[in-house]
Amino acid sequence: MAHVITDECISCGACETECPEEAISEGEEIFVIDPKKCTDCAACVEVCPVEAIKKG
């Protein structure tokens, strides 16, 4: 199951550069994860400074 970014996201971009599948992109208000590209590696979870990324 893909991870999701919650409304707690501060749009710092740390997760986007860490994703090996390039599944994370900047949305209108917060970053978003493409569930079709996400391989559930959790690299993004480890770098998020506000713990805004959860299992979907």
Task: Describe the overall structure.
The chain is of the alpha+beta class and 56 residues long. It has a single domain (3-55), classed as 2-Layer Sandwich (Alpha-Beta Plaits). It has 2 helices and 4 strands, in the order βαββαβ. It has a two-stranded antiparallel sheet with strand order 1-4. The chain has a two-stranded antiparallel sheet with strand order 2-3. The radius of gyration is 10 Å and the shape is globular. The termini are close together.
Shape, per Cα inertia axes: globular
* Global mean pLDDT: 97
Number of helices: 2
**How many domains, as an integer?**
1
What's the Cα radius of gyration? 10 Å
**Broad CATH class:** Alpha Beta
- The second-level CATH architecture is 2-Layer Sandwich
Strand arrangement within the widest β-sheet reads 1-4
Unreliable residue runs: none
Helix content: 10-25%
What's the short version?
The chain has helices at residues 14-18, 43-47; strands at 3-5, 24-26, 31-33, 53-55.
Please describe the structure with a list of short key phrases separated by commas or semicolons.
56 residues; alpha+beta; Alpha-Beta Plaits; two-stranded antiparallel sheet; globular
